[in-house]
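Quiz preparation item.
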């Protein structure tokens, strides 16, 4: 899969399908509030498994029940299709119960 950096227009278009995500410079971020601490850790485990399979890894910040995912393709210095695909996968996983 190509890891070409997305244009501003491509990022804006991609974010229309990712309403929970916000752009900050060269990354996109989403915070999920889990029902419990363990549910948040379960989500992190599911995301970690998907990220490992995709060989594309988010930055993850865990604060009790709040889990923040930040995506950027560091090797190209910005956002790529890999980030958009993983954001969609995180959305799916966040919608699943722990």
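Solution:
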């Amino acid at each position: 899969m190509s890891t070409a950096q997305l244009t501003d227009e491509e990022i804006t278009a991609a974010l229309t399908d990712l309403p929970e995500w916000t752009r900050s410079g060269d990354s996109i971020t989403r915070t999920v509030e889990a029902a419990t601490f363990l549910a948040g850790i379960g989500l992190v485990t599911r995301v970690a498994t998907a990220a490992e399979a995709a060989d594309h890894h988010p930055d993850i910040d865990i604060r009790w029940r709040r889990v923040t995912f930040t995506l950027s393709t560091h090797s190209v210095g910005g956002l790529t299709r890999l980030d958009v695909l993983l954001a969609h996968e995180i959305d799916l996983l966040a919608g699943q119960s722990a």
